[in-house]
Design goal:
Blueprint: H1 3-19, E1 23-24, E2 37-38, H2 40-44, H3 52-55, H4 62-90, H5 94-122
Antiparallel strand pairs: 1-2
Helix pairs in contact: 1-4, 4-5
Length: 133
């Protein structure tokens, strides 16, 4: 995979994160970036059968839901940090680098907040990968 294609993939991932879950990233045959499309599942509720993070929340309520939500959201944020770090290293565009820096800072703060909640509410920490710390 060349740098140009890799950069397009990173930009697509960042756009997908910003626009939120539920959008489906689509690429044309030329690997051009297409805007996320909104499926019926995104409008009514996310399709849990196709998303392991969402399926792990299905059917949970109360504390069980809260605990799993924190665990899955931390993992999601860690993925966003990894993509933003890749964009910092790979992208030539200052706008992407600036956005990536902002994403990293915001996601790290939110991970820390969720770690604190998990410890306070459930008596244990959620392991965080080195990228997410």
């Amino acid at each position: 995979m060349d740098i140009k294609t890799n950069t397009k993939i990173v930009i697509s991932a960042v756009v997908g994160i910003i626009l939120g879950a539920g959008g489906v990233m689509a690429f044309s045959q030329k690997n051009e970036i297409a805007m996320p499309s909104i499926s019926g599942d995104a409008v009514v509720g996310h399709n849990t059968q196709q998303d392991p993070m969402m399926s792990s929340l299905a059917g949970k309520k109360g504390e069980s839901f809260d605990r799993e939500f924190i665990i899955q959201m931390i993992a999601h944020h860690q993925g966003a940090i990894q993509m933003a770090e890749m964009a910092l290293e790979t992208s030539k565009r200052p706008e992407i680098k600036e956005l990536s820096t902002e994403i990293i800072a915001a996601q790290k703060m939110e991970i820390q907040k969720m770690q604190e909640w998990h410890l306070a509410w459930f008596g244990s920490s959620v392991p965080v990968t080195p990228t997410g710390q």
